[in-house]
Design brief:
This protein has 206 residues and is of the alpha+beta class. The chain has helices at residues 2-8, 14-23, 26-34, 45-50, 54-58, 63-68, 75-92, 111-114, 126-133, 140-150; strands spanning 169-170, 173-174, 176-183, 186-192, 199-205. The strands form two sheets. Strands 3-4-5 form a three-stranded antiparallel sheet, with no helix packed on it. Strands 1-2 form a two-stranded antiparallel ribbon. Strand 3 and strand 4 form a beta hairpin. Helix 1 (2-8) packs across helix 7. The protein starts with a helix and ends with a strand.
């Protein structure tokens, strides 16, 4: 599940992960499926490698109960989330390079924020963005240039989303941003297919 992997890899902040699990309760079931069946056994390989928190034990190794008992603002919850999820992902998907971080440290900028391209993304565009960002054969400068080319970014012309980015694509190609309009709390973002000229409007509310 993308949100889980993004958090484990350090590409999703703690705050945004909290929003994600609130919006997608199915994340809990996915996480629970990562918990080893023999977690309660002291000889469990996972337990030997990572250990388990007392909070996890007290809640019967139930992920949702453990991470929601005191709310996401609780210090203990932050510690559990920032250790437990990367550990579970690494244990089940050793090929994924996880990133552990101090939950109290200043949140590092995401790759898109560093490039000042954090207006890119959305359900249709994330796969395109990720493929470029994860290309180890490209430098950060080359990734930025390729993203700007792929998304038809013109100088100083990009959507100022009032919610999360929802960049539209047609097929595997991102559309070009044309303009944005607002009326009250309604914001419209107009995009165009560079090949056909077909228009698409994304609507968000502040």
């Amino acid at each position: 599940m993308k949100e889980v992997f993004d958090f484990a890899k350090g590409n999703l902040s703690y705050e945004n992960f909290a929003v994600a699990v609130d919006a997608k309760p199915e994340i809990w079931a996915f996480l629970q499926g990562l918990v080893p069946k023999d977690i309660a056994d002291e000889n469990c390989d996972y337990r030997k490698k990572y250990g388990v928190s007392q909070n996890f034990v007290t809640n019967g190794y139930d992920i949702e109960e453990t991470l929601t008992a005191f709310g996401f603002d609780d210090i203990g919850t932050k510690i559990d989330v920032c250790k437990l999820i990367p550990n579970l992902v690494e244990y089940n998907y050793p090929e994924i390079k996880v990133k552990r971080f101090d939950p109290f440290a200043k949140v590092a900028k995401t790759p898109l924020e560093k490039m000042k391209l954090d207006y890119l993304g959305g359900e249709e565009a994330d796969a395109i963005v990720d493929a470029i960002l994860e290309n180890e054969n490209l430098s950060d400068k080359e990734k930025k240039a390729l993203l700007k080319e792929k998304f038809h970014i013109a100088p100083r012309k990009y959507p100022h989303w009032v919610q999360e980015p929802e960049w539209p694509c047609q097929g595997a190609e991102p559309m070009k941003f044309i303009e944005e309009k607002s009326e009250g709390d309604k914001f419209e973002y107009i995009f165009e297919n560079v090949e056909t000229g077909e228009k698409c409007t994304v609507v968000q509310f502040a």
